[in-house]
Amino acid sequence: MPNAYFQFKQFRVEQGACAMKVSTDACVLGAVAAVEGAGRILDVGTGTGLLALMVAQRNPTALVEAVELDAAAATQAAANFKASPWASRLVVHAQPLAGFAATSPARFDHILCNPPFFRNSLRSPNAGRTTARHTAADSLTFPELAAFAAAYLTPAGQLTVLLPPPEMQHFEQDAARAGLHLISRLILHHRPGSKALRHISSFGASRRRCRNSNCYSTRMMTPFTRVRFSSYWPRFTWPCRAGSNWATLAAAPASGPAFAGADGRADRCAGARTRRPGSGGAPVRRQAPLFRRIAR
Prior knowledge:
Elements: E1 5-7, E2 12-14, H1 24-32, E3 40-44, H2 50-58, E4 63-67, H3 71-83, E5 90-93, H4 97-101, E6 108-113, H5 127-133, H6 142-152, E7 153-163, H7 165-177, E8 181-189, E9 196-204, E10 211-216, H8 232-237, E11 258-260, E12 266-268, E13 273-275, E14 283-285, H9 289-295
Parallel strand pairs: 3-4, 3-6, 4-5, 6-7, 8-10
Antiparallel strand pairs: 1-2, 7-9, 8-9, 11-12, 13-14
Helix pairs in contact: 1-2, 6-7
C-alpha cells in the first residue's frame, strides 16, 4: 500500500486524498522539463501538486499555477503548496481546463502535463482514478490540451507532456493540428535494450530539429541492499544547471531507504525496511516502493 506522503528534500507531498500517487516517471518529468528562465508556469492536472512543487523549487522566481478537476485532489494540492517554502508563488485552481481557459489567463512560458491516457481500457471502480487515468469527454482530452497550449503559450513557450509511446503518437498528431511542433523527446526505458515505457516530449510553436535522448531507470540506482541513486541520476537530471537550487529527491529525517542526491548529500525517502536473516534483526535498506513501479 502506498505511503500517505512522500518526503522530498525541501518539501513534503501528502497524497492520501489523491487517486494518483507520486511516481518515478512524474519525478523525471519534473526534473527534466526546461523551466529555467520561465516567468509563468502551468501544471495541468496537478493531482498532489508534485510537478508544480518541483518546478517552483527549480525556478526560484517563477509564478506557478496549477489546474485540477478533482476537488479532493485540488484541496490536497493546495495544502501541499501552503506547507512548502514557495507558498507565495504557488496557486491551484479547482476547475476543469476549459473553465480555467474561460477566465482568459495570461500566457505561460511553460505548460506541464501528465495527462490521462487510457482510451478504450477497463475503467476503475474508483471514480477519481478513472478521471486521472482515462481520456473521456468529462476529463482532459488530447485535443483540448493541445488547443489550450497553442492558445496560451508565449511565442517561445513550451508544452511538456508525459505519455506511453502509443498515446504519444496520437498526441503528436493532435499537437500538430493545433500548430505545435515537436522540440525534444526523452525516451524512458527500464534498462538498455528494453522497450520504451514512457516518452517525455516538448512542443513549441516554432519548427526546429527534434532532440532525442534516452533514460534508463535501472541506471538511476545501485543494486539492492543499499539502494542509492547512482552517479547516472545526478548527471542525467542536472545538465547545465550550475547555480540551480534544485536537488533531486529529498530527505525524510528518520527512516526509509537512503539515496544520494544531486548535491552529494544522503537523502532519505519514506519506504519499507526489511531485516536480513541472521543479522540479529538489523534493518536492511531495500528498494523504495516508488521505484518498484517502473524498475521491477
